[in-house]
Design goal:
Length: about 500
C-alpha cells in the first residue's frame, strides 16, 4: 500500500488511523519483536479494537527469552520458566503465529512462512500479505568449519541449551564419579568454552561456580580435579567492559584455576579431543561454542538492502533505507550511531540498543500511519556489566569501574529492572531471595529430554544405560538451532 494512499484514507475519515484491515507483520519474537508489538498494541489500541489494523507476530517459540539470565538459569539460580516471557499473555492484542519466515518479497508485500502445522497439513508453506513489515529475526550462532564441531559442540543461545548444558555438566560429574577408567574420568571433568564475549565468560564462570559447589556431594571429586578452559582468538576478553576490567577478569578467572588462552583458536574437536592452535590437546566431553553470532538467514532471502556484514541498511528513523513501509532494529539492523565520533558507525547489536530501538520503532511506525513526523534514534552507550559467578562481577558504567561484589550487585539490579513484566521481576527476585537462604540445587534432570523412555521400556522397547541417553542435536548435550528466528542479545547482552 503506497504511503500516499494511507494518508488519503485518513483525510476522508473523521479520525486519523490506519487504512481498514492494515496488517503489520513482525518477524521475530525476541527483544525487538516483543517490545515493538507491545508498544504498537498500545499506540494502535483504538484501531485494533475497530478492526482497522492487525498485528501479526511470527516467531519460532511462544516466548521471549531474556538472554542475560541464561547463565544464572544454567547455574540453577533462576528457574528456566522465569527466564522466558510468554508472548500470548503479554501480546493480547496481537495474533501470535508460531513459525518461521522463509523468505520475504517486500516489493509484493508478501512473506513465505512455515508453521507448526505446515508439515502436518502437507500443503506447503504459507504466503502472508502485509502492509507494514517489522523485520527483527535477530541472529544465529556463527560457526566455523572446525572438524568435529557440528558433532560435539554445544551452543549457548537458547534456554533449552542453557538447561541442557547444566544437565550435561552434572552428568559428566556423575560419569567421572562412577567410572574406573582414568581417561574417561579426565575427559568428563574437562570443560572447554570457545569465545570470550559475554555468553562464553558468564556461562563458564557461573557453571564453574556451580560445579565447584557440587563437588562437596561427590566423595571422589575435588574442585582441583576439574579442568576449565576458555579459548579466545583475540588478545582480550569482555571488550565491552574496557581493557582494564578485561584484564582483571582474566586474573580473576585464572585465580579460580580456569585456564584462559588468549590469541588461541580451536583447530579441531574430532573424537572429542580439543586441539588448539598453540599445539595443546585436551580430551573433553564438553565443548561449548559461544564465538559470536551472524545475521539470520532470512535477511539474505529477502529483497531488502543489506550492508557488507549482511545486516539491513537502516535510517536513523529505524526504517529500512530505500524500502518504504519496512522497519528493522536490533541484531538484524545496521542503525547509524549518531553519538559515535567515527563516521559511518552503526549501533552495536546488544540488548541495550535493541530495547530502546524497539520502542522508538513502534512510535515511528504508528506516527507514519497517522501522518506525523518521525523521530531519530540516538543513544549513547551507558556501559556494561557482567557476572562472574555468585557475588563476583565486573562493570564499566558511565566511566566508573567496579569489580567484585558491587559489580555483581549492579548486574543483578540492572537486569532485574530490565526483565519484562512485573510478574517476572517478582518471581526472579523471590528466587534470588530463597537461594540466599537455602543451599544450591545441583540435581541433573537430563531425563526430561526423553520423557517417553520409561514408557517405551515398559512397552517392550529398549532403553540406553545410564550416561548414554540419546544425544540431542549438536552432540554432547544439545547444539544450536541454526536458522531459528530469534532476536536480541548478540555478543553483548550484558550491556545496561
Amino acid at each position: 500500500m503506497p504511503h500516499g494512499q494511507v494518508k488519503a484514507a485518513f483525510s476522508r475519515g473523521t479520525a486519523p488511523g490506519p487504512a481498514p484491515g492494515a496488517r503489520i507483520l513482525i518477524v521475530g519474537g525476541g527483544y525487538v519483536g516483543m517490545y515493538t508489538a507491545l508498544r504498537l498494541q498500545r499506540n494502535l489500541k483504538a484501531e485494533l479494537a475497530r478492526g482497522e489494523a492487525e498485528i501479526v507476530v511470527v516467531t519460532p517459540d511462544p516466548y521471549m527469552t531474556y538472554q542475560p539470565f541464561l547463565p544464572e538459569a544454567a547455574a540453577g539460580l533462576i528457574s528456566p520458566r522465569h527466564v522466558v516471557v510468554p508472548l500470548r499473555r503479554v501480546l493480547g492484542g496481537c495474533r501470535v503465529l508460531i513459525g518461521e519466515a522463509e523468505s520475504i518479497d517486500h516489493a509484493k508485500r508478501t512473506a513465505v512462512l512455515s508453521t507448526l502445522a505446515t508439515e502436518e497439513e502437507g500443503t506447503g508453506s504459507l504466503e502472508l500479505s502485509y502492509q507494514e513489515l517489522v523485520l527483527a529475526p535477530g541472529s544465529v550462532s556463527r560457526t566455523l568449519p572446525v572438524p568435529g564441531l557440528a558433532d560435539h559442540g554445544i551452543g549457548f543461545k537458547t534456554v533449552e541449551e542453557a538447561i541442557g548444558l547444566r544437565n550435561h555438566v552434572i552428568e559428566q560429574m556423575d560419569i567421572a564419579s562412577s567410572t574406573r577408567d582414568p581417561a574417561i574420568r579426565d575427559a568428563a571433568l574437562a570443560f572447554v568454552f570457545v569465545g570470550g564475549g559475554y555468553a562464553g565468560v558468564e556461562a563458564l564462570a557461573e557453571l564453574q561456580d556451580m560445579a565447584h559447589y557440587a563437588t562437596r556431594y561427590y566423595h571422589n571429586i575435588e574442585p582441583t580435579d576439574m579442568k576449565w578452559l576458555l579459548v579466545e582468538a583475540t588478545d582480550r576478553i569482555l571488550p565491552e567492559v574496557g581493557e582494564d576490567m578485561g584484564r582483571y577478569t582474566v586474573r580473576e578467572l585464572r585465580r579460580r584455576n580456569i585456564d584462559v588462552r588468549l590469541e588461541t583458536r580451536l583447530d579441531s574437536c574430532e573424537d572429542r579431543i580439543a586441539q588448539l592452535s598453540d599445539g595443546s590437546r585436551f580430551p573433553t566431553r564438553t565443548l561449548v561454542w559461544t564465538a559470536g553470532v551472524k545475521p539470520h538467514p532470512v535477511l539474505a532471502a529477502s529483497d531488502l538492502p543489506l550492508n557488507g556484514r549482511g545486516r539491513l541498511k537502516c535510517t536513523t528513523h529505524l526504517s529500512i533505507d530505500g524500502a518504504p513501509h519496512a522497519w528493522a532494529a536490533g541484531d538484524a539492523a545496521a542503525v547509524p550511531d549518531t553519538t559515535a565520533k567515527e563516521e559511518g558507525a552503526v549501533c552495536a547489536p546488544n540488548a541495550q540498543h535493541a530495547v530502546r530501538q524497539a520502542k522508538l520503532l513502534a512510535d515511528n511506525l504508528a506516527a507514519s500511519l497517522h501522518g506525523r513526523p518521525l523521530a531519530a534514534y540516538a543513544h549513547k552507550h551507558a556501559g556494561s556489566v557482567a557476572s562472574l559467578g555468585l557475588h563476583k562481577g565486573v562493570a564499566h558504567v558511565y566511566g566508573r569501574k567496579l569489580k567484585g561484589y558491587p559489580a555483581w550487585f549492579m548486574h543483578r539490579a540492572y537486569h532485574l529492572s530490565r526483565v519484562p513484566t512485573f510478574n517476572r521481576k517478582a518471581r526472579v527476585l523471590a528466587e534470588w531471595t530463597l537461594s540466599g537462604l537455602f543451599k544450591r540445587e545441583v540435581v541433573s534432570l537430563g531425563s526430561l529430554e526423553h520423557p517417553r523412555a520409561e514408557f517405551a521400556l515398559a512397552a517392550g522397547g529398549g532403553r540406553p544405560g545410564p550416561g548414554s541417553r540419546p544425544a540431542r542435536e549438536g552432540g554432547a548435550g544439545g547444539g544450536d538451532k541454526d536458522g531459528g528466528t530469534r532476536e536480541g542479545g548478540g555478543t553483548a547482552e550484558g550491556s545496561p
